[in-house]
């Protein structure tokens, strides 16, 4: 009997469980009678330690609840399969053989695509016949070649709405105030740039800084000072992965992050921003990290994102059962207005190990504001935004 395996890999997104639903629903239709679909618990760790969950007979009520469940229902891990010995692959192979697994669906991001490719190479080398398909997911939009992958639209929507709400809060008191908000994005600025869409509600940020451009602390202070001089308030968005001219991440500054190993501060640039601004400004300063809610908050997920995540889960199964192997399923945008896409499959070799960065044409010449052309890209993905009352003369 040929059985199937589903693996959630990498970090969570708000809609990765929708992809799981797509895989489960399609397998329930296409598996031979008596065939099983297993989910590996905590990602590759489940394969290494024979911890699989039988989700073959999940009923419709369970699946509907799974669609609305945040983060990763089946868990993940940060373990990288060792390439220096065959021990890990031997354990994986033993589990695959034990459960007679012929179809493998890996639902993950940039690193997971590369891991899936290495796994498929190893299985091919030892002569284990199976079909492996990757279902993409991402928060910061760093998977190469594709227009976008599930997870990013919801993270962008959460960021946009939250920032519009914070900008409202900034105007509660008629006093000078600086807000600096850290958003995810280690090496790509798509998520930080999405914050500009908050401006479509009338309540957007003044400044945006992305990893594709060197972060100059002195220029940042000058930019903030210029805005403060004009309006008495300034709202800045900074991606976690910005680097200074010497190639260092802001979280590597040990004057504010005291850990012996700077990598333990990874992603935590809020203390640095607060320390920097406090040196030059006497007004109230609020530095905020949007944190994990960017990647796991399902309460404001993009409806398009949920639909596409499930669609790609189902399409992955269809392609595998049609004979495809060592591929990744994805969507190609054919139109933004109206929004339309088509399914595409890519060879894993095309995508594995390649990291996407944001097109610099989306940046204004000053490098801290986003051009209108980016709105044509992001707005169809995040869906309708809230409409707020605007009181004439309230803001100056």
* Computed CA radius of gyration, to the nearest angstrom: 23 Å
Specify the oligomeric state. single chain
**Spans with pLDDT under 50 lasting ≥5 residues?**
none
- Give the rounded overall mean pLDDT: 93
In spatial order, strands of the major sheet run 3-2-1-4-5-10-11
* C-alpha termini separation: 70 Å
Order of helices and strands: EHEHEHHEHEHEHEHEHEHHEEHH
Number of helices: 13
Give a count of the beta strands, DSSP E runs of length 2 or more. Answer: 11
What is the 3D form?
A: elongated
Portion of residues in beta strands equals 15-25%
Largest sheet: 7 strands, mixed
User: What class do helices, strands and sheet pairing give?
Assistant: alpha/beta
Secondary structure: helix percent? 25-40%
Explain the overall architecture:
The chain is 36% helix and 17% strand. It has 396 residues and is of the alpha/beta class. The strands form two sheets. It has a seven-stranded mixed beta sheet, sandwiched between helices. It has a four-stranded parallel beta sheet with strand order 7-8-6-9, sandwiched between helices. The chain is elongated. The mean pLDDT is 93.
What's a quick, concise take on this entry?
The chain has 13 helices and 11 strands.
Characteristics:
about 400 residues, alpha/beta, 4-stranded parallel sheet, about 35% helix
Describe the SSE topology.
Elements: E1 3-8, H1 16-30, E2 37-40, H2 44-48, E3 52-54, H3 60-67, H4 87-98, E4 101-108, H5 110-125, E5 131-136, H6 152-170, E6 177-183, H7 190-194, E7 207-209, H8 217-231, E8 233-239, H9 270-280, E9 284-289, H10 293-296, H11 303-321, E10 327-336, E11 339-347, H12 348-351, H13 373-382
Parallel strand pairs: 1-2, 1-4, 4-5, 5-10, 6-8, 6-9, 7-8
Antiparallel strand pairs: 2-3, 10-11
Helix pairs in contact: 1-3, 1-11
């Amino acid at each position: 009997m040929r059985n199937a395996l589903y693996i959630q890999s990498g970090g969570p997104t708000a809609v990765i469980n929708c992809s799981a639903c797509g895989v489960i629903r399609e397998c329930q239709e296409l598996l031979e009678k008596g065939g099983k679909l297993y989910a590996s618990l905590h990602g590759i760790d489940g394969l290494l330690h024979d911890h699989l969950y039988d989700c073959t007979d999940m009923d419709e009520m369970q699946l509907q609840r799974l669609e609305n469940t945040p983060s990763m229902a089946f868990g993940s891990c940060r373990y990288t399969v060792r390439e220096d010995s065959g021990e890990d692959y031997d354990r994986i192979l033993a589990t695959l053989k034990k459960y007679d697994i012929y179809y493998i669906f890996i639902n993950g991001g940039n690193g997971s695509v590369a891991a899936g490719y290495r796994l498929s190479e190893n299985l091919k080398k030892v002569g284990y016949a199976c079909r492996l398909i990757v279902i993409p997911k991402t928060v910061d939009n760093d998977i190469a070649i594709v227009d976008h992958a599930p997870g990013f639209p919801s993270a962008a929507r959460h960021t946009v709405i939250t920032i519009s709400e914070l900008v409202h809060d900034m105007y509660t008191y008629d006093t000078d105030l600086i807000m600096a908000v850290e958003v995810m994005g280690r090496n790509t600025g798509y998520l930080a740039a999405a914050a500009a869409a908050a401006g479509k509600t009338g309540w957007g940020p003044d400044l945006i800084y992305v990893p594709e451009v060197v972060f100059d602390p002195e220029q940042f202070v000058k930019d903030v000072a210029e805005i403060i001089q004009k309006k008495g308030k300034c709202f800045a968005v900074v991606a976690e992965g910005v680097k200074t001219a010497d190639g260092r991440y802001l979280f590597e500054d040990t004057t504010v992050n005291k850990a012996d190993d700077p990598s333990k501060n990874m992603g935590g640039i809020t203390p640095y921003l607060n320390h920097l601004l406090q040196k030059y400004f006497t007004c109230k300063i609020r530095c905020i990290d949007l944190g994990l809610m960017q990647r796991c908050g399902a309460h404001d997920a993009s409806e398009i994102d949920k639909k596409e995540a499930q669609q790609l889960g189902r399409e992955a199964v269809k392609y595998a059962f049609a004979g495809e192997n060592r591929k990744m399923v994805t969507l190609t945008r054919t139109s933004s207005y109206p929004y339309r896409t088509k399914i595409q499959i890519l060879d894993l070799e095309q995508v594995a190990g390649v990291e996407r960065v944001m097109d610099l044409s989306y940046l204004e010449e000053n490098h801290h504001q986003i051009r209108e052309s980016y709105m044509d890209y992001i707005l169809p993905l995040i869906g309708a935004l809230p409409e707020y009352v605007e009181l004439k003369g309230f803001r100056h």
